[in-house]
Amino acid sequence: MQVLRALLTFAVVAAGRSEASRGEQPPAVPSPTGIQVTSENFKTTLHWQYPSTSETPHFIVEIKPYNLGSYKIVSTCVNISAHFCDVSREIDDPFASHWLRVKAVVGSQQSDYVETDEFILQKRGKIGPPKLNLSRHGDKIMVDVYHPAFPSVELLPWMEETYLQLKYMVTFWDKKNQSKEVFPGDNCTMYKCSLNIPITAPGSTYCVSAKGSFYDDLMFGAPSEENCIYVPLKQTLSTQYIFIPCVVVILSLSIMLTVCCGCKKLRKKNIKLPKSLLEEASRLQALVLLGNFNHPDFSWKNSMVSCRQSRTLVECMEGNNLSQVIDNPIRGAVILDLMVTNVSELIGDINIGGSLGCSDHALVEFAVLKDMGQAKSKVRTLNFRKANFQLFKESVKRTPWETALWGKRAEQS
């Protein structure tokens, strides 16, 4: 009897030990590690790491909003092989607490869930810097502040309310005296905020930076880069915006009419275009001539030329005291559109950039001096009313354009 009792006691103790050993065994599949939540420009993502396995692991992500009180599956992150999950759509309140967790599934086995700490988008989310665009309109500087790349309202409907509460603090200062002012940029749309800043002292460089504010200053974005614009003296300079493509068209039409109207006169004098135009125009007291002269072979920086026509143009300019003031490429890497003048002091503040419509030529902005005097110049001009336009039309029709332009590029035609 005592022997039977001892055997039963031993069996119970052995069974308890077996259950304890089984309870202490870790899961057959390891859990993800390095789990963290990042949020930039309202795009929230859960990241994790996982060791290499012989079989591809898949993952399941769940989220627990504070107001729900329990976990629910993120439908877009079920049995995914990526080590991240975009949960932006699951967070519809930037001030509410959220918790996330993820587990691994390898074959028919799965790991335990790994949970994140509390996440509040308003506290831990980051907003990138905006982009600025400055332009001058009269005595004001227009500042356009473009938002960072936020998710669309279609993806996150609550972003529409965020745009209504978004404002920028725009810092404006004069580089000459370093005086700074702060202006609110609250005239906002879903793409940008705008404001006009009055210019108090022309003849200086003004700089602007902007920093975003959300939800009544409860969330701030990163400050933008410094962006500057030069404002010339009002009484000396008058800014003129010259659109090179339009000038090219006007100049081309003028040259065609000149060929029709003055070809006989030019043949008698044995004068060639455009050399004759430059020589005639150089007699003006103040000259600014713009247009596409189409000499891609000429390097204006080191005065290297390989074409006879280009060499003729340069000799004509030098012989008539004309200078070319554009030194940056207008189309691609070459300078095709030239600005020729006989008074280099006449031109200032040349800016090249942007384009008009689908044109591949850059726009040119520059300032010209005014109050140059009222001296009269006697320059003979051609009478276009006497031009034989019918002869010009017939000449155009007779020209075999396909043969003449065959195999030539735009710069050569």
Topology:
Blueprint: H1 2-24, E1 33-40, E2 43-49, E3 58-65, E4 72-80, E5 84-86, E6 98-106, E7 109-110, E8 114-115, H2 121-124, E9 131-137, E10 140-146, H3 159-164, E11 167-174, E12 180-185, E13 187-188, E14 192-198, E15 204-214, E16 219-220, E17 227-231, E18 237-242, H4 244-269, H5 275-281, E19 288-292, H6 308-319, E20 323-324, E21 337-341, E22 347-355, E23 362-369, H7 389-398, H8 401-405
Antiparallel strand pairs: 1-2, 2-5, 3-4, 3-6, 6-7, 6-8, 9-10, 10-14, 11-12, 11-15, 13-14, 15-16, 15-17, 18-23, 19-21, 20-21, 22-23
Model description:
There is one protein chain. The protein has 413 residues and is of the alpha+beta class. The protein has 3 domains: 33-124, Immunoglobulin-like (Sandwich), CATH 2.60.40.10; 131-231, Immunoglobulins (Immunoglobulin-like), CATH 2.60.40; 241-405, no CATH class. Helix content is 23%, strand content 33%. The protein is built from 8 helices and 23 strands. The protein has helices spanning 2-24, 121-124, 159-164, 244-269, 275-281, 308-319, 389-398, 401-405; strands spanning 33-40, 43-49, 58-65, 72-80, 84-86, 98-106, 109-110, 114-115, 131-137, 140-146, 167-174, 180-185, 187-188, 192-198, 204-214, 219-220, 227-231, 237-242, 288-292, 323-324, 337-341, 347-355, 362-369. The strands form 6 sheets. Strands 3, 4, 6, 7 and 8 form a 5-stranded antiparallel β-sheet that branches. It starts with a helix and ends in an 8-residue tail after the last helix. Residues 7-23, 235-273 and 371-375 have low confidence and may be disordered.
